[in-house]
Amino acid sequence: MRKKILALVMAFAMLLSMLSLAGCQSNNSKNAFVVPEEGFNPDEQVSITFTHTMGAKLQGVLDTYIEEFNKIYPNIEITHQSAGGWSDINGQINTEIAGGNQPNIAYCYPDHVAMYNIAKSVVTLDNLIASEQVVPGTNEVLGLTAEQKDDFIKSYYDEGIVYGDDLMYTMPLNKSTEVLYYDKTFFEKNGLKVPTTWDELWDTCDKILKIDPNCYPLGYDAEDNWFITLCEQMKTGFTSAENGGEYLFNNDANKAFVKELREYYQKGYFTTQELYGSYTSNLFVETTDTRCYMCVGSSGGASYQMSNNDTTDGSFAFEVGVAPIPQYDANNRKTISQGPSLCILKGSKTTDQQVLASWLFVKFLCTNVDFQAEFSMASGYMPVLKSVTENEAYAAWLAKGNGYEYLVAKCVQVGIDGRDDYFVSPAFNGSSKAREQAGALLLKCLSGETPNGVDALINESFQEAIDECEY
Question: Cα separations (Å) of 123 from 98, 259, 359, 376?
Fold first, then answer.
């Protein structure tokens, strides 16, 4: 009942917003931001702020391109800061929105945007993207050209429209995905094939355990990603942004695959980050104690999977292979897409010129091939533009990819090759809680006690997760 009431309230609020904007929009009557007729004023000094999670190395890249941006727009002053990790930036910005001092631009995940937009703080980008106004003093149009839009990798660009209302809220900056790291040296020595399906993976785990009975054949870092990915691969339902947000994962098909995962866990085929107590990349690079020979982790974390990670002389204990994660159905290939996008935030004191300046900077970062190339090489994340692979320096870097010192380049190439398989979960107020509960229920089902039987544990865990989401 609570969920239905919430959905009705949100639907009514959306209807009021649409009605209040009717007739006022040039391109889309539902957009909250109207591009002013006078456009961007290059003679007005404008200051904007940008909050992100970049470390010192990436901030250095950013500073270089802020200088390049200011050669075009000298009247735009950009101040940026790192908020720490993803939970830090989400909490900080929510607090700042409540106090009316939010940044103009922010790193974001879809779940974050859905939360920020409870206060209607996120600027929709549709009219900005569609604007054909020429920016004074330049030959550039304010919006995106057809060529610029076509250059985006579609799955990354479409992430901006996952909120249930067909409006664009974000632009993609750089992305990561999950990949399967494996000890290529070990695989070749023992005649093992790299698994492409889950059935093949479990068969490989069984073979590895017979070779090394003390190992975990597989380490999987993100329990929530695993659950969500299997729902997507099997088409069994996780969530929907319809009707203000729906939780679909409490069904028999999902319970069945979780029960199967428990059986494999009990056989010792795998461990996870929470069960192990640390990133499973630590097990993967281990050479003298209990280890794993396969690891599913972020493509953005490739540097932590290098086999010399814990050695003192810089030598490589083994060659690392990188492959796409296993699939359930070859005709429905699905791999989760993650990594930061950019959103523009607006409060009661934000001016239209600040919004326009913010958009110009977002557009610059997301469509600048040189920035995308340099940022990818520095971060290990994947660029969001197709044409980046034509950048001479970037192409040369990718060509060096191997299972040793250029593992990051190899991993990025695997990610680029699999870009047609990527998906993003729907985002709404409550979607972050669903993700959190997906990981929690999987952990309970894998390792929980079963005084009333496995089925009872699984049923209870799923219902508890739904109750937490709807509370």
Answer: 16, 43, 10, 27
- State the amino acid at position 278 in one-letter form: S
Nearest to 198 by CA among 37, 27, 112, 324: 324
The three-state secondary structure class of 51 is strand
- Report yes or no on 254 lying in a domain: yes
Q: How many domains does the chain have?
A: 2
For the chain, helix, strand, coil in percent to 5 are 50, 15, 35
Q: Are residues 416 and 379 in the same domain?
A: no
CB atoms within 10 A of CB 287: 13
Which positions of the chain have pLDDT values less than 50?
Answer: 1-31
Q: Extract the tokens encoding 174.
A: 């750089």
pLDDT at 192: 98
Do residues 222 and 439 lie in contact, with contact meaning Cβ atoms separated by under 8 Å?
yes
Instruction: Determine the Cα–Cα distance for residues 317 and 287; give it in Å rounded to an integer.
Output: 7
Domain with residue 408: its CATH number is: 3.40.190.10
Helix (H), strand (E) at residue 218: strand 218-220
Q: How many CB atoms lie within 10 A of CB 12?
A: 11
The model's pLDDT over 80-118, given as tens digits with 9 standing for 90+, comes to 999 999 889 999 999 999 999 999 999 999 999 999 999
The H-or-E segment that residue 71 falls in is helix 56-72
CB-CB neighbours of 390 under 10 Å:
11
The verdict on 167 and 288 lying in the same domain is: no
C-alpha–C-alpha distance, residues 47 and 80, integer Å? 11
Contacts 24+ apart (CB under 8 A), 312-316: 316/404, 316/405
pTM of the model: 0.90
